[in-house]
Structure formats: C-alpha cells, structure tokens
Amino acid sequence: MKLKKMILTVIISLAPFSSAFAADVLNSGDTAWIIVATALVMVMTPAGLALFYGGMSRYKNLLNTIAMTFVAYCLASVIWMMWGYTLAFGPDKGGIIGSLENLFLVGIGVNSLTGSIPTYVFALFQMTFACITVALVLGSIVDRMKFSSWIVFTILWVTFIYCPIAHWVWGGGWMGNMGALDFAGGTVVHINAGVAGLVLSLVVGKRIGYGKEAMFPSSITLTALGAALLWFGWFGFNAGSQLAADGVAGSAFLVTNTSAAMAALSWMFAEWIVNKKPTVLGIASGVVAGLVAITPAAGFVNLPASLVIGLVAGVLGFYGVAVLKQKVGYDDSLDAFGVHGICGIWGALATGIFANPAITEGAKGLIYGNPKQLWVQFVSIIATAAFTAVGTVIIIYVTKLITGGLRVEQESEIAGLDSSIHGERGFEIHEV
Amino acid sequence: MKKIEAIIKPFKLDDVKEALNEMGIQGMTISEVKGYGRQKGHKEIYRGAEYVVDFIPKIKIEIVVEAERVDEIVDKIREAANTGKIGDGKIFVFSVEQAIRVRTGEKGKDAI
C-alpha cells in the first residue's frame, strides 16, 4: 500500500512536466524568451539593416537608405497590427489567406495564448519578420526611388505579398500543410524579398551611370557594424522561431552562429583567391549570406550540416554578387537578390537535404531517407518566387499610378537623395 | 615677393615643415588636394564592382617669401620632400603683386 502511494505521488508530481498538461498553459520561460527574441529581431531592421545597407550606399544617399529602412519598419509595425496579423495568422480560409476575424486584434486579449506564449507576444514577434522582409527589398533600389513611392509600395507589398506567403507557410496555409519546411523564413522572408527586389530593380531601372561611374560605398565601417547587429539579432530570428525556450531553440541558436561564421570565412577566402584581397565588405556580406541560408534550416539541421550550409552560402553569395550580377548586368544595387534570394534558395533546398528527425520530430530530409522533402522544398521555392514576382510587378504598377512615377528626377538622383528628398547630410564634414 | 606652391606626398609634410622652420620661414598654408602625374592610381573592388581610383591624395604647401630667397627655399623643399620615387610632386613659383597683414594693415615685405 505504501509503495503504491509513493509511486502515485511521484507520478502526480511529475504530471505538470508532461506535454498533456503543458499545452495552452502560459509558460513564463517561453514567454520571456520570445519577448527578448522579438526585441532582437526588431534591432535587425532600424539598426542592423539600416547600417548594413546605409554603409553600402553612396554618401549622398546614406540617409535616404536609412530613412527607407526606418519608415518600412514603422509602416509594417502599424499595418501588421491593423490587418496584417489577421491576414497571416487569422483563421484559415481555403489554405490561401487568414480571415479578417482578428482585424485590429479584435478577439485577442491579455490572456489569449498561442501555444505557451501570449498571443500579443506572438503577434509582435511575427510583426518584426514582416518589417524586415519588406525592408530587405529596398536594397535593390537604393539611390533612385521616390520616398512617397516607397511608402505606398511598402503598405501594399506587406498586405498583398508578405501576409499571404506567411499564411501559406506558417499560418495554416497550403505550403505548411504540404509539408514544406521553413523554420524561420527562408521562403517567407529571404526568397520573397530577394525576388521582389530583383523585379523592382528591373522595373525601376538602373542607376544613372551604373557600370560606368564609380559608386563608392559611404562607409564599410557602418556596414560591418550593421552586419554584426544583424548577426546578434538573428539569434532571436532563428532561435526564437521555435516559439519556446527549449532544446530545439538551443540547436537553432548553435547552427545559426556556425553557418554565419563559416560563410564569412568562405566568402573571404573566395574573394581573396579571386581578387587577391580579402575585404571587410566581403566578410560582412558572407556573414549575412550564412545567416540567410541557415534561416529555413535552423531548427532542423545539426552542426555538421550547418558547416556545409555556411560554406556553400559564402561561395554562392560571392558568386551571385561578384560574377552573376556583373555578367547579366541588372542593377540589384545592394544585392537583395544576390544574397537573400540566392542564399535563401540554397537554404531552402539544404533544408530538404539535411533535415534531421532527431532534432525536430517529423522533419526528415534526403540524407535521412526522405527524398520527397527535397521536392516539396523545390515546389515551395518556385511557388514563392512566382507569386512574389507576379504580385510585386502588379503592386509596382499600382504604386507608380498612385505616386505618379517611381523614380526621382534625374537632377535629384545626381545631386543625391539626402539633399533632394530630405534636405539633410549624413555627417557634418567640415568644409568652409 | 614670390609665392611658392609645393605639391608633395602627404607623409613628407613634417619633413618639409621642419626644413622651412629651420630656414626661418614664419608660416605656411596647406591644403589637402588630389592629383596625378606619372604615378598611376589603384584599383578598389566592392563586391565585384571594380573601380580605378586615378586621383592620389597630396598636400599642397603655399608660402610667400622675399624674391631673393626663392632659390634657396625651393632647393630646401625639394630636398626634404624627395623620396626618389614617382609621385614626389612638383614645385611652382609665382610672382606676388601685394601682401597685406590683416591685423595691422602692413604691406609688402613687412607683411610676410
């Protein structure tokens, strides 16, 4: 009798730790982590990306690049809470889009939960992803776009392109249901933004003097700082996408850093061999390439896989910006497609190859005996790219109509957008 | 009075300044300039975009001196600025119409 009581006591005291008791109950560890992760992802846009892109822009457009990044973050923040969240994560409608049930977050309260975290926290975490995705797009068209056009484009693009794709992959839509694996946004963020950027750069056209004039980056120092901030924030981006403070988050955390470091080194060595000089711009770019590639794979792959993913991402990224772009001749100015598009595609495919069921149950890739996953990944890449390409073109033309043209006047472009749009200077460099 | 304009390599500025001070030259004006002659520029590559930078940073020193001392001063500048390599620079001599000291209004030799 005493033994039975003892066993029962042990079982009952262990009950709270079983999954049957943990579902739909607030977990303060998870909540604390996701609140922090959200802040980490937030810093990636107005600080990380703004400086990364700003430093690569010509001095006369440095502030404009920062302005576009900042305003994209602000616009997406507001839009998301009004109608973006519900379109992406509201009750599913036909696998395509979420309903408007949670417009302005109606129906969601202080005690609402998504998994083990408050829905408010979940909504804000997802918002930071929408913000950075649209901000990434501007990298393709720096130095020449009207500020009003960028604002209109941002509003339309987040609503009609980001939200549907986020819904398809994460919000209960068809891609997630098909079995596509995208841990933190290889398709939703990087391929999406990369393709949109490329399309936008083709429609808006090349910068005046592209290919003939020297276009010096304003500050590799700022770019390097931006890359470091992106790396820091990306821990929230990837490890936070587990939506819990657990072992998988820890695994995602680990492989994120390894991939970034590996890609920085492989880009650096590739550049050293080809151009005889390892540049800081190359190292910083390699970091981002590695982070992009590991994004869809973060919670699915192990350490050795992350080394491979990073190694290839660095070389691929270098090729994309230094060889492919020069050969084909498009002016994807800061390589939104070259880095985010190309390395995002590699990452999505790598996920189909290396997904290890020992890390996340049910996620199995090619090398673990599930070749079908690679095909599913391929379909998700094509569908994302196609939808984004077509949708972005439509949005570009609507924007053009609303704002009366996308591009600034020639004299403004030549004088620089900091002075012509903003009436400001990036730095007060003392000249009489 | 004559004006001496010396365009020299930036790292030679201290040597030239010392040499002029030793000769009793009271002051000078310098500016950061760019230029090229026979010295070729260099290449910079940013993510595969290759740019040739033709203009090389130089320092221009301007001093106004008594005509009698010009040869002596020019020789001293040349000696101090010389490295023997291409890109050492050039020195030019001009005639000066007038010189005025702002504080006192003194003119001519009293002003330099």
Largest interface: A-B, 17 and 9 residues
Strand segment tally of chain A: 4
Arithmetic mean pLDDT of chain A: 94
Principal-axis shape of chain A equals: globular
Q: Give start-end ranges of low-pLDDT stretches of chain B.
A: none
- How are the strands of the biggest sheet of chain A laid out side by side? 1-2
What is the CATH superfamily label of chain A?
Answer: Ammonium transporter AmtB like domains
Approximate shape of chain B? elongated
The fold-level CATH name of chain A is: Ammonium transporter fold
Average residue pLDDT of chain B? 94
Major sheet strand order of chain B: 2-5-1-6
Number of domains of chain B: 1
**Count the helices of chain B. How many?**
2
**Total number of helices of chain A:** 16
Instruction: Enumerate the spans of chain A where pLDDT stays under 50 for 5 or more consecutive residues.
Output: 14-22
Rounded to an integer in angstroms, the radius of gyration calculated over CA atoms of chain A is 22 Å
Q: How far apart lie the N and C ends of chain A?
A: 95 Å
- Beta-strand residue percentage of chain B: 35-45%
Q: What CATH architecture label of chain A applies? A: Orthogonal Bundle
Structural class of chain A: mainly alpha
Give descriptors for this structure.
heterodimer, A: 432 residues, mainly alpha, Ammonium transporter fold, two-stranded antiparallel ribbon, 16 helices, 4 strands, 68% helix, globular, B: 112 residues, alpha+beta, Alpha-Beta Plaits, four-stranded antiparallel sheet, two-stranded antiparallel sheet, 37% strand, elongated
